[in-house]
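Supplementary Methods S3. Input chains for the assembly prediction are listed below.
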Amino acid sequence: MADRPRRPLSRRRLLQASALAVPGAWALSACAREQPLGGASSAATSAGASSGAAPAPSPTALQIASPQNPVKWPINPGNEPIASGLEPEAGATLRIYNYPDYLDKAVVKDFQKEYAEYDVKVEYSTFNDYPEALTKIRTGGVPYDVTFMGYNFIARLVYGDLIRPLNHDYIPNIQDVWQEFQNPWYDLEWQYTVPYVIFTTGIGWRSDLIPEDIGARPNPYDVFWDSKYAGEIAVLDDDREVIGMTILRDGGTDVNTADPAVLGAARDAMLEMLSLSQPRVTITGYTDIPEGVLSLSQCWSGDMITGQYYMPEGVDPSVLRYWSPPDGRGMIGNDYMTVLKGGENPVLAHHFLNFMLGNDVSLKNFSWVGYQPPLRSLTPETMVADGYVPENLASAVVKPEWFQVGYPLLELPPEVEGEYQAIWQQFKAGA
Amino acid sequence: MTVSAAPAEAILEEAQPGRRRRVRGSSDTRAYGLATITVIYLLWALVPVAITVLFSFNAGRSRSTWQGFSLRWYTWDPTGSVLNDESIRNALTHTVLLAVLATLITVPLGVLFALALDRWRGRIPSGANFLALITFVIPEIALAIGLLFMVTYLATPFGLGTWAQVIGLVTFQLAYPIVICRARLLTIGAHYEEAARDLGASAIGAVRRIILPMLFPAILVSAILVFADVLDDFVIVRYLSSDASTETTSMRIYQTARAAPTPALNAMATIILVVSTLVIILGWLAYRRWSKRQGDTTELGSFAGNL
Amino acid sequence: MKDRSTRLLWPILGLPAIVWIVLFFLVPFYVVLCVAFGTVDPVFRTPIPIWNPLEWQFTQVAVVWDRLFGPDNFYLPAVLRTFAYVAIAVSACLVISFPVAYFAARHAGKYRGLVLALLIAPFWISYMMRMLAWINLLQPEGLVNKIITLGGLIPLDINWLSGNPFTVVMGLIYGYVPYMLLPLFASLDRINPSLLEAARDMGAGGFDVFRRVILPLSVPGIVAGSLLIALPMMGDYFTSDMLSKSPSTAMIGNLINLSIVAPGQAGQAAALLLLVLLVLLVPMVLYTRSNARAEVRS
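Predicted structure tokens for the full assembly:
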């Protein structure tokens, strides 16, 4: 190299290079991975998330389920349920894909013990949010067997042929859950899903760090716009939850709105929040609040209940507080478990779902994750008395009737989802 | 801006030891000032890490309040210790596995390329060398995303997971052996090889019997560098990991440092620190043996200088 | 006969690495281009790469451009923030490492080996572990707060770990300073002491010697060290993630890292990445050249 001064890229070389590029590109496209696309054709579409330049996909592409519009999902040809009476796969690794700390490791060990004769190994992989999970499930190439999701993603899971319809014969323990979850609006006749846990979205804090009773404010959500707490608060790392909360704060009730005016106002309010209180964006409130890293955070009801197990030495769990609208008019939801089509162990996955639904296992899991399963044996009144929920967190108990008045986060049409994502990106860019 | 070559400088220093001492003597106060800054810097750089190591031996859960010495987070805690938490154990073994595989591939690739570059002139080798040097300074996230997209959108024979991680790491590390071995080849010069050829050795024979042995310290140092750097890698291994089985220690620290860590996390980090220290010590011993055989006298400094 | 086989030997030795670089550096880079100039799946909003450069679409690049310089330029603050953080961190690294490297190179005397080994030590300690160390120290109940409040005597409640830009910049300095120290040490070590003495003999004062001899001679080391830490910092997202996790300290790396798995935004992440690389191309080439020059010199 010493004897040859490097020449700048000449035009001739540039031309040579571009002449090579086209056949090279052809060679590459020849080995492009086939996308597991559903019916939509991809060629005619263009990008552009916020500009709204993307032509709307055909209206039949995505059916949106809601309490007013319950949906019975189609079963795509070639994706029939597994046959009854099959033996679980032996020597298998059951791959579970879930939020971190959202399933009791001891329960997983119990499952392995119960299925010891089949020499089962369980591998627990984690995602940070549902959009990431959906992307990875679709393109990541890891054969996950079971995943945990919210109902704002079910249409795409079905549409993309990513999940497997259930054979109910393997899941008798469905008897143990509330009647309405045996035929939920987001999946009539529970063809694809079984319920996992239920939760509200609210505000958690430590009363010794924030002596104020947040719930006593005229508008408790305002606390995120209170510069008094700058640097010690956080919102959830989830676009829908933060945008939804902002809409509720401003007096709206439609947390699934497609109205550009409402969304624009929410965006402005969120940017204002950033400058007033510099919130962190994280789903780890369940440890950060107990540890005092955060004083207050938007969180799910289960986070504070599990938070009592993360208290530092010398701090009593009785300082934890949780608020969500006491009339139930806040965000409410449930997560479900589903069997992924790409998994290698469908029979074992069915067994796992059934195992998790069982009353005793479900209760054991509850006492670790802090998220309440919709079990028949579990009534809101007895949860505190039985020691599942400490008295100072009684407000974190989800009441069944709230599902009649609360606001679930529904799946959005892709172009609306694009608007939400754009707002979220702007928020997270700190602009 | 001419800088004299290092050997000449060394000779100069050898020849005039008295003068050098005089220079130093004249700036004693400044030397003390500089020494103070250096000590403060070293304290700042190393004490936080030492505290992290210390707290891996904490008997309680806290990472900031000392509750007595214990090996709890290494061995006996039934669920949380390194020994009993399968995911931590797995992260440790996977990290070491990646380091071994990446080193085994990177070093031969790089050494051979450096040898070729020493003789082979033209656009192809210098272009490749340029690209290899670019991989050295390009933000790691660019490489990681490129490979992630490649694995996702092209029908590569390997998917995300161990092999994708190894491939990413090798690409990112390739510059180390190339740069180090080339520097060494330039100081060796061509005359040893020419002499061997004159005595009838074939080109391959000369490389194998003359050049490679002389290249040994450079190969050793680049192997150590690659190994230690891979133990430390985060961006590439995270982007190209598949599921929990391909999680490394750095990913675990990233994920749990802000979530629900116990001193077991410190213990895991300490173990990786011990592994890389061991590798360096072994490397130093090998280096010392080699230089003894070569008749050099050597000390820690020149080995460290090579790194 | 023999001559030709010899001539062929070198390309054969070099071939594996060249194939490797083409397959795993150039091809991935091309895929990034195809994604950045590609389209998006309408339902899943995942990228659909366009392989033929003649069909490339510029929608994603336009979106990114708009977010940088258009009316809705919400990328810009993060970009400016990144440049500010990197500039401060690099300057601080320089200020810290210059005296230290100078001491190690010139004044360490018989402790030289030890000092050098200690200077290199942080280099071996995993970056994540060093960040973990500071997370532990900077917790609300952590050692730093205990010390500055004198064990709770002074009611000073500093929250270091939530959106505190000072912490993030400190983390960058702490994380990258070893990478600056080594090239600087190498270039200072190379300065011939007799030059300094000659300057002094001609009546130059301590400061003059520094300004007119040492500083100019260490410029290559300063440039190499600065580039060596500034370039990776431009893509760093984990330091801010570990020490802040607040959008108010988001850097370019965070923007890219966030978008890559978010629906509908992978293409934009790719386009943003390309723009960043385009800007960094000059310093990158500068670095490889200075590296080549250093090789020639030694």
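Chain B touches chain C through 112 residues (CB under 8 Å). Residues 287 and 293 of chain B are 10 Å apart (CA to CA).
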